[in-house]
């Protein structure tokens, strides 16, 4: 037999980790460190996936908000045209029927794409999340914070406000 094979090498004697328990502890620590890094990377990847999915859903649902905002004045103009036409004009003109059909079609497109009209009525309570106060006036027979006039309807795209309803609000102090 070879004498060299029976003698421990100088490398093993010089290595302070030659003790198997120390070596196992060092390997376990290294394994735990890599496991921690792996778990963090996995969590990071999952968070990125969820964020990308949310961004995709938001883009799908709210991507047309600029177009929707640009169409709101069209809705307003058609509504004002119908409001300005008296009963006499409505009976005589086919133009009014065309405007009504156009407004109805626009409203159907809005509904199909999740755009809801916010239609406050005089007497409703002012809600700063849905209404924009254009003026305040002390009107007898009203309560402070009550809507007294509606200038323009508001619009909501799903759960986001596109445009608040423009209203006049009572400033009559409570009795």
Automatic annotation (TrEMBL):
Its main location: cytoplasm. Residues 24-62 form a coiled coil. GO terms for molecular function: adenyl-nucleotide exchange factor activity; protein homodimerization activity; protein-folding chaperone binding; unfolded protein binding. Gene3D superfamilies: 3.90.20.20, Head domain of nucleotide exchange factor GrpE. GO terms for biological process: protein folding. It is found in: Cytoplasm. PROSITE patterns: GRPE. Pfam families: GrpE. InterPro entries: GrpE, GrpE_CC, GrpE_head. Keywords: Chaperone, Coiled coil, Cytoplasm, Stress response. GO terms for cellular component: cytoplasm. It comes from the Bacteria. Belongs to the GrpE family. PANTHER family: GRPE PROTEIN (PTHR21237), GRPE PROTEIN HOMOLOG, MITOCHONDRIAL (PTHR21237:SF23). Homodimer. Participates actively in the response to hyperosmotic and heat shock by preventing the aggregation of stress-denatured proteins, in association with DnaK and GrpE. It is the nucleotide exchange factor for DnaK and may function as a thermosensor. Unfolded proteins bind initially to DnaJ; upon interaction with the DnaJ-bound protein, DnaK hydrolyzes its bound ATP, resulting in the formation of a stable complex. GrpE releases ADP from DnaK; ATP binding to DnaK triggers the release of the substrate protein, thus completing the reaction cycle. This is Protein GrpE. It comes from Paracoccus haematequi. The gene is grpE.
């Amino acid at each position: 037999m070879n004498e060299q094979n029976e003698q421990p090498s100088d490398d093993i004697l010089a290595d302070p980790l030659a003790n198997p328990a120390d070596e196992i502890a060092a390997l376990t620590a290294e394994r735990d460190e890599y496991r921690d890094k792996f778990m963090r990377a996995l969590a990071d990847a999952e968070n990125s996936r969820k964020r990308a999915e949310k961004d995709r859903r938001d883009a799908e649902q709210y991507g047309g908000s600029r177009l929707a905002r640009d169409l709101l004045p069209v809705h307003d103009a058609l509504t004002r045209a119908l409001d300005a036409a008296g009963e006499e004009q409505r009976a005589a003109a086919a133009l009014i029927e065309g405007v009504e059909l156009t407004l109805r079609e626009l409203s159907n497109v809005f509904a199909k794409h999740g755009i809801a009209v916010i239609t406050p009525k005089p007497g409703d309570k002012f809600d700063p999340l849905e209404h924009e106060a254009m003026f305040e006036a002390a009107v007898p027979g009203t309560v402070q914070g009550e809507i007294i006039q509606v200038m323009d309807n508001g619009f909501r795209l799903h759960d986001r406000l596109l445009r608040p309803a423009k209203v006049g609000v009572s400033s009559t102090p409570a009795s």
